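ok trying this again, last paste got cut off
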Amino acid sequence: MNNGRTGSIPVSGTISAITLEPMPSYNAPFEIHVHGQVSLRADVGYAQLQDCLKPLWKYAGFRNLADGATSSYEDEPGIKFDAGEHLLQMCWTVAGDDDFRQTLDEVCMNLNEIAEAGAAIEVTFYDAEFDTEEGPPSGESRDDFLMLFVGPNPAAIMQVQRDLLVQDMINMMERHFDASELTGVVAEVDKLFSQRFDALVHSLEIGKPPRGSGGNHGGHGGGRKPRHLH
């Protein structure tokens, strides 16, 4: 993802034996951590996944997924493809800037095309200046956290959003109420998502020709977030 590292440069002629590795950037303002697990369609193979994730490994300065799948931190698994389980797993850090957000947009659009079910992807921007040995500088950290969602259709994406919201609400409210008392709260959340989905479906229907022959008949927190530990 980020051009925080200079990409490998193809060479030819008499110097074709020389391999130029990506160089780390010491000026990237963020360390960006991407974390998530996406179930993929059974027909998706490594080549198709590599193409879908190209914005990521290209941003990191590599020429293929095999090289770019390694995280900046050795204790993180990086980007893994489990062909047997049809699963994409990401726990991957790269140095970058705010332009990485555009890369995320492209990757999410690509993953929508190959996802079997809805999934959430966590992305954390860690301010690199707050990780110096001298200690954090004065002022506030520029840390940021994004929760992104992918899926084969709007219904699958909304289902994941709903499930995460309900889980967070129950975890918070169970400090004060029994789980049996929260049924009504969950029902209200379901109602909100149902209304949102109905509105989306209606918006997609606008502009479509009427059904029938020739179209003539009537007929979608505060504080610094800790790094993932493994």
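PB: full thing came through this time. Residues 21-152 form one domain.
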